[in-house]
């Protein structure tokens, strides 16, 4: 059984069709990259998996369970956004722990998990700082920490490295990939950058005008945009 399955998922807003009858299966523990030019439907696909948008028709399943009508919090998945969505007035520790406190996780357990996550991401010495006092790479890791602390099995990422300079982006690609493998995470990663897709993916899903044009390991993808 695939971990994530989209079956005949369509999405439109009025006359704008973002997705038309999209089928997709994502296997557990894989790094899956949604690739394609701007407007092809990558973000919409991700947001529908997350439950941030509802599909106009079709079905979304996670671990075989129909989640099409479930709210984001009940899907057991985490999401990292392009702009990081960090809270500027909160410390690194409180940014990491925000979701835990919202969910009412007991204080001691939350503190333990914040520590673990910070160590995992090399942020343990920065717990008292605020986001503005971090480097670009550290901010990016903090955004990841906020997603990982919830211990979701699936992590969705929408162009998470696009705000970094070229060198740092390269480093973070490697770092992200290592982390994903170490934790056995399933990642669905959106990018329009073909090099990034080819260097990171186990599976590349090439989208074109709201449909899956190809779905294959990087070395088998042909004529990508
Ligand atoms: P990508 O992530 O590949 O750039 P998107 O999924 O963001 O593509 O968008 C796919 C299409 O759907 C585009 O034509 C976009 O303008 C349209 N779209 C996305 N979100 C909305 C929305 N909230 N309202 C109307 N149209 C939207
Ligand atoms: P991304 O760069 O991740 O593809 P966009 O900049 O396309 O994101 O979209 C950012 C937000 O604006 C999303 O919530 C998306 O749904 C919405 N959006 C995108 N295109 C349109 C549109 N044509 N009309 C209204 N909202 C849109």
From TrEMBL:
<dbReference type="GO" id="GO:0008643">
    <property type="term" value="P:carbohydrate transport"/>
</dbReference>
<feature type="domain" description="ABC transporter">
    <location>
        <begin position="4"/>
        <end position="225"/>
    </location>
</feature>
<keyword id="KW-0813">Transport</keyword>
<keyword id="KW-1003">Cell membrane</keyword>
<keyword id="KW-0067">ATP-binding</keyword>
<dbReference type="GO" id="GO:0005524">
    <property type="term" value="F:ATP binding"/>
</dbReference>
<keyword id="KW-0547">Nucleotide-binding</keyword>
<dbReference type="GO" id="GO:0016887">
    <property type="term" value="F:ATP hydrolysis activity"/>
</dbReference>
<dbReference type="GO" id="GO:0140359">
    <property type="term" value="F:ABC-type transporter activity"/>
</dbReference>
<dbReference type="GO" id="GO:0055052">
    <property type="term" value="C:ATP-binding cassette (ABC) transporter complex, substrate-binding subunit-containing"/>
</dbReference>
<keyword id="KW-0472">Membrane</keyword>
<protein>
    <submittedName>
        <fullName>ABC transporter ATP-binding protein</fullName>
    </submittedName>
</protein>
<keyword id="KW-1278">Translocase</keyword>
């Amino acid at each position: 059984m695939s971990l994530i399955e989209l079956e005949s998922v369509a999405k439109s807003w009025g006359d704008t069709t973002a997705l038309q009858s999209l089928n997709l299966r994502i296997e557990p523990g894989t790094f899956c990259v949604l690739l394609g030019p701007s407007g092809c439907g990558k973000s919409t696909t991700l947001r529908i998996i997350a439950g941030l948008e509802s599909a106009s028709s079709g079905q979304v399943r996670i671990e075989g369970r129909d989640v099409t009508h479930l709210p984001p919090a009940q899907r057991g998945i985490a999401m990292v956004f392009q702009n990081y969505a960090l809270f500027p007035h909160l410390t690194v520790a409180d940014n990491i722990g925000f979701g835990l406190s919202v969910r009412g996780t007991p204080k001691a357990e939350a503190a333990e998990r914040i520590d673990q996550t910070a160590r995992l991401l090399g942020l343990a010495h920065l717990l008292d700082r605020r986001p503005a006092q971090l480097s670009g790479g550290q901010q990016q890791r903090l955004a990841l920490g906020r997603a990982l602390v919830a211990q979701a099995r699936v992590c969705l990422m929408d162009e998470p490295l696009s705000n970094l300079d070229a060198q740092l982006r390269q480093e973070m690609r490697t770092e992200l990939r290592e982390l994903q493998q170490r934790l056995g995470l399933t990642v669905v990663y959106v990018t329009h950058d073909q090099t990034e897709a080819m260097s990171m993916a186990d599976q590349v899903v090439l989208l074109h005008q709201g449909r899956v044009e190809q779905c294959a390991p990087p070395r088998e993808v042909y004529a990508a945009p």
